[in-house]
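Budget justification, computational time. The allocation requested in the original proposal was used primarily to generate structure tokens for proteins on the priority list. As evidence of use, we reproduce two of the resulting records. The first is shown immediately below.
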Amino acid sequence: MRVTTMLVTVIALWSCTLGQLVVVKWRLARLVESGPRAYAARTWLKTSMPISLVEGFFYLLAYSDVIVLTQFRPPDDVAVYYAAVKTLALVAFIHFAVAQTVAHKFAEYHVAGDRKRLADFLAIRSASPSGPRWA
């Protein structure tokens, strides 16, 4: 029998879910007294449905190019395209994360009008081996 990626994914998902359930129940049992159980399923659904819809449309938008591409190209070409797009997304995220780590200092010095500290800050960042990279 051949194990598919989907089967392994489902097993991993349920293993994590059940493991988390056991750990949370065990930890809560030590901290919270037993009492009557009450569920607010309707409230949970009302709250989570808009979030689920937004996330669903986001994923549809994020993967629509791959879905359309599968109609016109062989799977090998789609796989290369998918890998390239995801690699570029990772690179863009790293650039964003690095820019966000210094943005608050840049804004702080600029708003305070502290040109000396801003110039020193820019000089330090520009002296990095990869050179200045400001977003």
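The second record produced under the same allocation is shown here.
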Amino acid sequence: MCGIVGVFDLKVNHMELRATVLKMSKKVRHRGPDWSGIFYCEKAILAHERLSIVDPQSGKQPLYSKDCNLILAVNGEIYNHQEIRKRYEKTYKFQTHSDCEVILPLYQDKGPAFIEELNGIFAFALYDRVKDCYFIARDHIGIIPLYIGWDSFGNFYVASELKALKESAIRSRSFARSLSLQQRGGYDTMV
């Protein structure tokens, strides 16, 4: 069990919002006491609280693609990660042994359609810096919790627990199971 907090569609200064996200992330730290990590830029912020199960040495999150254009925060476990890793080992430079890192080459190769290839229990937020879009998804059965919300400025939040969203979001709800959300060009698309 890990904890994630993310903010997208930033309408306010990312440095000011970073402090808020750190407070939000502390509210889910009990889900992952082994490591705290954060990514932030002018367009997105991703925080991760990690419980080390698979790859305790190098699986710190958020995870980054080799070129640092894809940023990923995941709560859960990808059961078929070894099969996927083997498929991409010649075309993708894996930086960790984390089961969740396989999401990055899958996304690079297939875009959001890759979600059908994952077998496991998971909720994740992925930010693509080149395309300036995000992709949020949850496992097909909805075992791993994920909540979404918006603040009064229109910033879009995701979090592993509702109490993390209470810090900033004025509207929030559970993210429907077996649903993914992609944003590009200012429009959200349910996939």
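A brief technical remark on that second record: The first strand starts at residue 3 and ends at 8.
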